[in-house]
Amino acid sequence: MLIHVRHRTRYHYEQPVKSIIQALRLMPRNHEGQYVRRWQIDLDHDGTLRPGEDAFGNVMHMLSLDGPIQDLCLTVEGEVDMQDTNGILRGTCERFPPQFFLRETPLTRADAAITEFARDLFGRHGGNALKTLHALLATLHLDMAFDTEPTDTSTSAADAFALKRGVCQDLSHVFIAAARVLNIPARYVGGYLMRSDEAIHQEAGHAWAEAHIPGLGWVGFDPANGICPTESHIRVGIGLDYLGAAPIRGARLGGASEKMAVEVTVADSHLDSQNGQDNQIRWQRPPETARQASQQFQA
Amino acid sequence: MAFDEMRFADGGIRPPYAEVARWLQGVTSAQLERRRAEAELFYRRGGVTFAVYGDAQGEERIIPYDIIPRILSGVEWARLKTGLEQRIRTLNHYLADIYGPREILKAGIVPEDLVWQNPAYRPEMAGLAVPHGIHIHIAGIDIVRVDGDDFYVLEDNARTPSGVSYMLGGREISIRLMPELYAAHRVAPIENYPNELLATLQSTAPRNANKDPIAVLLTPGQYNSAYYEHSFLADKMGIELVEGSDLFVRDSVVFMRTTEGPKRVDIIYRRLDDAFIDPLVFDPGSMLGVPGLFAAYAAGNVTLANAVGTGAVDDKVVYSYVPDMVRFYLGEEPILKNVPTWRCRQKDDLAYVLDHLSELVVKEVHGSGGYGMLVGPHATGADIEEFRQRLLAAPANYIAQPTLSLSTCPAFVDQGIAPRHVDLRPFVLTGADGIRIVPGGLTRVALRQGSLVVNSSQGGGTKDTWVIEDPEMPEARA
């Protein structure tokens, strides 16, 4: 299936910004079941975009812009040929052995509750890693309510698990923390999802997890949807947690306060033509990390 | 009975201390007291202070300075120097390896989890070609002696070691306050340290830098415990002392804001931990770093000294493998000894350690500065119990070592002149043009009787360290 993605991020600054620097992980790579037909990143200002790779082999562009800038629009647009692989990954870029992904991070630290939860599932599935992970997937999907309100990008797995609420990022962090407690290497994946409910316009990208099973290799798990990734999941970046795969991490000089609006459309290319027009812009608070990094440069 | 560097067990004087012993016989306690007071005044006037974390009594204080110099003979120094060079070459090989081809892991010499699970191992560095292949430009390797023959490495300190300003300050004081004693020796100079450091930094400039590369010293700011040293070194080297907000990155090149406009920066001597150097790559909440700095570094447009991720050798379990690394990378036998180390992550070692807590020193694998350690023989029963629980809860977080009877040197304390335990931190500089070590280093002294903890954060003091140049031994000179 050929999937068309358009991901637009608009910024509006209260005062003109002097300069902006961003690290972008916004470009998918090819692997089995995922072939990038075309992909481009566009800006409505003159700036430089240097392509490179990060630690995990994700494509990373460094964006530098000089102001004054009051409004900025970053558009990512492309088409990817997708095939279902039952969540099993082959031909991915691997820079580190699976054991590396046992490493704990502040966002994925398992507290006592997650540890107990994980060990309990493991015990109930006779110590079988794959069965436990599927149970983990189903349980998190059922028990954790989708809710954009209580969490943000800096919410830890432990906090989200205690709330029993969160977004795809939070569920993925909990999944990863629980898998690592059981000595199963796990990692975070950022990407795009073509939703089955035909909601073409979305306000964010998607996130899920991957775990490494001896004999099978890396396998995807999407706890927000309670399924393994399908041909609708376009994989863009991996990391130990959200921070390692974050689509945009940036800082700026000046600008005072910032407003940001994200619109993502993901659709079957053959059906997409009639849905091309923009929908209404919905401004939101910028992600926590971007806001923190920005502060130091404000007067 | 500890090895005393001045006196043999029978009371006779070891040759390097002949002049010091004679001088000590000739001075009165009142004279020594007056000199000590003058030394303290010197530090106070100079603003040479040190913040002790967790000390409720005040932000900064002066590290006590003991005016009786510590003496090393030219022969002792020559041997130590060769050992330090071997050690730092090995550690640089190891870092280039774990961030490169990973040969030592494939060979099964260092267990893989000591790399992959080590939080100081920075995946961002993997595959990165650092300028001139140097990772550790500046190391402050802690050395102890237990007898007249061997030097032991206690810690390698490959991140941002501090203390060199005390080494230089101590020398200034001893020349000023004890000119007669100083003149009676041929003391190898150390005053050239800032020049050696600058030459080292400049030699490691990126290959695309200007002919006269620009170096800066990046400090976390005035609230850092070593801020005095940062400003002191920048001043002595004649380079800018900057904070993160003084620098910016454009198109993967680092610039410094100056009154004459942006100026390109080629080398950053950074006294800022890895986690804080770039909020786009590391801790996103860091206000101290420079957004985009890591990308500039990865692009080969700036040198960071030290490189990112050098802390991977400061792990105390990794430390226990350094002798194996010397053999693996250099095919040589280690000149400096390692303190025997029980790895509590290993079952048998843990069992031994739990049975011998009252004899051993237990340290956190990632600890430093003398915080969070147990010195068994000096600990109370409650302390030992507490550590037993900690060890049982997270054995992999600890190592244990025998309680070394550190060598002693004469010190002027409340009780008069008495032996006190010491260690030595030589500063090892590695540039593209070789290794430089100014003779000696910072001697730290545990001023409390019987104490083995020399860390300044734990109430230790410092001493000037004199390496005596022997005309017969030209290699005694750095």
Automatic annotation (TrEMBL), chain A:
It comes from Dongia mobilis. It holds the Pfam family Transglut_core. GO terms for molecular function: peptidase activity. Keywords: Hydrolase, Protease. This is Transglutaminase-like putative cysteine protease. SMART domains: TGc (SM00460). Residues 160-225 form the Transglutaminase-like domain. It comes from the Bacteria. Residues 272-282 have a biased composition (Polar residues). One of its GO terms (biological process) is proteolysis. Gene3D superfamilies: 3.10.620.30. Residues 269-299 are annotated as: Disordered. InterPro entries: Bac_transglu_N (IPR013589), Papain-like_cys_pep_sf (IPR038765), Transglutaminase-like (IPR002931).
UniProtKB/TrEMBL annotation, chain B:
Pfam families: CP_ATPgrasp_2. InterPro entries: ATP-dep_Glu-Cys_Ligase-2 (IPR051680), CP_ATPgrasp_2 (IPR025841), UCP005522 (IPR016450). Signal peptide: none annotated. Gene3D superfamilies: 3.30.1490.270, 3.40.50.11290. SUPFAM superfamilies: Glutathione synthetase ATP-binding domain-like (SSF56059). Residues 69-446 form the Circularly permuted ATP-grasp type domain. Residues 459-478 are annotated as: Disordered. Residues 467-478 have a biased composition (Acidic residues). This is Putative circularly permuted ATP-grasp superfamily protein. It comes from Dongia mobilis.
